Amino acid sequence: MESQAYPMLFSPIKVGTQEVKNRVFMPPVSTNLADHGYVTDALVDHYTARAKGGVGLIITEVVTVEPTYTYLPGDMCCYDDTFIPGWEKLAAAVHQYGAKIMPQLFHPAYMAFNVPGTPRLVAPSFVGPSYAREAPRPITIDEIHELTRQFGDAAVRMQKAGVDGVEVHAAHAHGMLGGFLSPQYNKRTDEYGGSLDARMRFLLEVIAEIRERCGKDFIIDVRISGDEYTDGGLTLNDMIYVSRRLEKAGVDMIHVSGGTTIKRGSAIPAAGTKQASHADLSREIKKHVTIPVATVGRINEAWIAEELIEDGAADICMMGRANLCDAEFCNKAAAGRAEEVRPCIGCLRCLNGIMFGKPISCTVNPDVEHDEAGFEPAAEKKDVLVVGAGPAGMEAAYIAARRGHHVVLVDKQDQPGGQLRIASVPPAKQELTRVIKYQFSRLAEAGVDVRMGVELTAEDIQRDFAGYEVVLAYGAEPIVPGFMTGFKQVMTADDLLAILAILRDPENGCPWDKVQTHASIRKNFLEETCEALEAIDADDAAMMREELGDVLMQVAFHTVIEEERGRFDFEQVCREVCEKLVFRHPNIFASSAAENAGINSWDALKNKEKGRTTLADELNTVP
């Protein structure tokens, strides 16, 4: 696969003795689509869509190698030969599009799902996660040898099914092999504990078992945490050494992640955090080995992946959520159509539902299992009116149009996005704007008649859209507790974020001039107050002037919001200005000098002869 837009990312790479068509690999992401460990048609469709979309190599979700302990109820297994036919079907489906596929072999250990009938969990030592009901028991040496054989058995079954290799999961202090490697969980004093060499012994024995039984042409990849980012955990120096030992043991590729699953955010970065979160680790490890090194961690745009490879941070980019969100990510990016990629916002909904046993889902891609292949042309074409151009309305309009309906989308706002536009205002939420742009841009492609800035009443719909199917997607109003409405300073988060969204968008109805006008008038009024203060105490007046700008802008914002609500009271806002200053400087305004000057309260100020008429006139001229 060649690409002028991203030539490094879509260049081939050799892993072991095999060549992969590009450097976009899909890392393990649980789907909960298996049936008692068996591959289902839903799983085949899910991974085939990503292969068809151009991914070079797919590493599936965890595949447990023995029957006693379950990781997640919907994950896959390969502990006996009955699982082979499903894997044959999956491998063949992926291979038809030139992609390669490898399962991630795993034993959950102290991370096992405690389904009824599960015996006491096992672990390297008597150490488990803090949320466990009881401490796990240490696995015996005989059990270690048996489990090593079971890893080898699973790899042989996978090879028989036609997959291209396996990934061995030893990252995140997670599961049996990750736990043995980590000093946080391995407290053993035998040949499998203590020093780093002893802690990695189990992992090296598993690798040797797989290589001996599957041969040199079968890819072996190991996933590690380049740093556990935890006091007492594995460090980058540790993992440089481990990586060199892995290469000597015959590993073909190292997949560098970071952190631990107990400290979830360290391993799986959330929205608003930096992209390519573990690239510093892969960059350093890459200096010390000659085999390909992959990096992972919220790499959700093609340009970032291209930069990482070009700058030497990694040979391969693991892009999981990007390919979940848009199965055609690779094809679109390679063709230079990155703006058409459905954007991943890093919200981790794909993870959250999984933890409760639900099938995989995606906030931005409602049909993540089929990636829009799940709908068919409508048997009967209809006229459809969608009211509201928020995310739900735009999605409804797009899908209806794609199914062949004639669709009109109407919104009273001049800009699309609805609540999503408001939600994008806070820090670390700016990626939501990409969703709005993506959804709005494809409406034209689908032939939707978009009418922004149009407010419809029920009478309008009955008159102008008779016979239309109507979809109401104009959102909801926030619930405000009744007892709060009596307070003058109360506003909802939506109120505040909406006004900030408008203020940041001067080309679309920005009331900034109105805010400044209100601030200017309050300034005239308070200047008179400061002049009166100067006659009492020059230092107090100077202090007041320093705070004037801050107070004025607070009140000016509040003024505009109150006007938007249609309940603005000019005199009340002026009172508010004075009360803010009185509250900040009670000693000044409570002084006898202030009382004598007639500025000790709002009523006194309002009734002051000086400037009273001028102030009233100014207040009445506010646009």
Determine the number of helices (DSSP H or I, runs of at least 4 residues): 25
Structural class, from secondary structure content? alpha/beta
Give the amount of beta strand, in percent. 5-15%
Q: Give the overall pLDDT as a whole number.
A: 85
Please estimate the helix content.
Answer: 40-55%
Shape: globular
Strands in their spatial order, largest beta sheet: 3-4-6-9-10-11-12-13
Number of strands: 17
The major pleated sheet works out as: 8 strands, parallel, barrel
Q: What's the end-to-end separation, in Å?
A: 61 Å
Mind telling me the C-alpha Rg?
32 Å
Uncertain residue segments: 506-512, 605-623
Structural account:
The chain has 623 residues and is of the alpha/beta class. Helix content is 42%, strand content 12%. The chain is built from 25 helices and 17 strands. The strands form four sheets. Strands 3-4-6-9-10-11-12-13 form an eight-stranded parallel β-barrel, surrounded by eight helices. The chain has a four-stranded parallel beta sheet with strand order 16-15-14-17, covered by helices on one side. Helix 2 (84-95) crosses helix 3 and helix 19 (512-534) packs antiparallel against helix 20. The protein is globular. The chain starts with 12 loop residues before the first strand and ends with a helix. The model is unreliable at 506-512 and 605-623 (pLDDT under 50).
Q: What secondary-structure arrangement, pairings included, does this model have?
A:
Layout: E1 13-15, E2 18-20, E3 24-26, H1 41-52, E4 57-64, E5 76-77, H2 84-95, E6 100-106, E7 122-123, E8 137-138, H3 141-161, E9 165-169, H4 175-181, H5 196-199, H6 201-214, E10 219-225, H7 236-248, E11 253-257, H8 264-267, H9 279-286, E12 293-295, H10 302-310, E13 316-318, H11 320-325, H12 329-334, H13 349-352, E14 383-387, H14 391-402, E15 406-411, H15 419-423, H16 432-446, E16 449-452, H17 458-464, E17 469-472, H18 493-503, H19 512-534, H20 538-565, H21 570-584, H22 586-589, H23 592-597, H24 602-607, H25 612-619
Parallel strand pairs: 3-4, 3-13, 4-5, 4-6, 6-9, 7-8, 9-10, 10-11, 11-12, 12-13, 14-15, 14-17, 15-16
Antiparallel strand pairs: 1-2
Helix pairs in contact: 1-2, 2-3, 3-6, 14-16, 19-20, 20-21
